[in-house]
Amino acid sequence: xxxxxxxxxxxxxxxxxxxxxxxxxxxxxxxxxxxxxxxxxxxxxxxxxxxxxxxxxxxxxxxxxxxxxxxxxxxxxxxxxxxxxxxxxxxxxxxxxxxxxxxxxxxxxxxxxxxxxxxxxxxxxxxxxxxxxxxxxxxxxxxxxxxxxxxxxxxxxxxxxxxxxxxxxxxxxxxxxxxxxxxxxxxxxxxxxxxxxxxxxxxxxxxxxxxxxxxxxxxxxxxxxxxxxxxxxxxxxxxxxxxxxxxxxxxxxxxxxxxxxxxxxxxxxxxxxxxxxxxxxxxxxxxxxxxxxxxxxxxxxxxxxxxxxxxxxxxxxx
Length: 318
Prior knowledge:
By secondary structure, this protein is an alpha/beta fold. The chain has 2 domains: 5-118 and 244-317, FAD/NAD(P)-binding domain, CATH 3.50.50; 121-240, 3-Layer(bba) Sandwich (FAD/NAD(P)-binding domain). The chain has helices at 16-28, 63-76, 125-129, 139-142, 158-170, 187-194, 291-317, and strands at 5-13, 34-36, 50-51, 61-62, 80-82, 86-90, 96-100, 104-113, 117-119, 135-136, 150-154, 173-177, 199-202, 205-212, 217-224, 230-233, 237-240, 244-246, 277-279. Strands 1, 2, 5, 6, 7, 8 and 19 form a 7-stranded mixed beta sheet that branches. Strand 14 and strand 15 (217-224) form a beta hairpin. It is elongated and about 70 Å long. The protein starts with a strand and ends with a helix. The mean pLDDT is 93.
């Protein structure tokens, strides 16, 4: 076999809590997993600061440090972790054919997809400047840090409405910035939001700039698009809830997905529509999107892959 072609039992595409947990379980099952981390090794958690809601870290931990712990554990148990990205796949026959960095071919008996999803951002420079220092794309993850403070959230869908009401329980005041003159959320979520006393909804409003002192957020400049009136909201937190994009484009044409690109798995499992291909983490979960749920599905994917290979071996040897 050419040095640019390699055969592996279990290939994990993507890192993060799902990928690393899959790697830990696959290693212990002697599947000799090979992982390609993707361009953001460790996934979304490497872009967050304090993580206080993952069990086992009583004092909390920084996101990048936590992902380094996951990586070391997977490596210690035998995972071959490689920095690189999968540029294309061919799942039309077995073994599965995966191209890495556009020049290396991996032939894999099983594939675990854990490519995650990326939060959509408004595109402001200040948004990236203060990301993790007052700007967040996850109210459930970071709302606790703004207890008793005033915050703003941008978005108009179910997720934004849900996160606004979640923040309202923790924060003194929540400004909800809605671009149009109505929500996109379901009637039930709209009803809950408009009837929460400490949520102020700003319709026809866009974010111009996130303000800060160089260290953390201390305000948000917004404009009413109908009246052109600008105002500054005195807030210490700014939450973006305009959606996520699953990192699944390279699997299109092979793997069944919903209309927004999330991979569909068989109920109660991580199995996709392709034999021997499994998916875990945020690439298939648009509901919970938590590190701990991603890790749980990573465990499931490794067990599913191990059982699939064991059954196949049994059929071949029987």
